[in-house]
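Customer ticket, subject: "Can you confirm the structure for Cell division protein DIVIC?"

Message body: Hello, I'm evaluating your service for our small team and ran a test protein. I'd like someone to confirm that this is what the system normally returns, since I don't have a reference to compare against.
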Amino acid sequence: MPKNIVQLNNQYIKDEHQHRRYLAEERKRKNRFMGWILILVMLLFILPMYNLVESYQTLLDRREQLVQLQDEFEELSKQKDEVRELADRLKDDDYAAKYARAKYYYSKEGETLYTIPGLLPQ
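Agent reply: Thanks for trying us out. I re-ran your input and got the following:
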């Protein structure tokens, strides 16, 4: 059994509809404003975050570079110690003669040299 619904169309109803439309428009404006504020806040957080990530990546690269440079420093220190030790040994005339004969193939008169790889005096 269908009922007939009659809508009253008086001034109060018209004013209420207008008031609801006004409130809906106000809500849309507030939501739009809050949306822009949210976008602005997101941008304000994204830019520093990007810089922070970039700085962290640079820090990691520098740490790797530091480790490589420390390894290189240790290797060069060892080489320097070896060269210094060789220089100290070369001050001895007998050792200097043996070294020159082995490395540069110097020989005394009447000697025959046979080279053996890896036999250079240390």
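A couple of notes from the result: Residues 11-104 form one domain. The first helix runs from residue 11 to 90. Feel free to reply with more questions.
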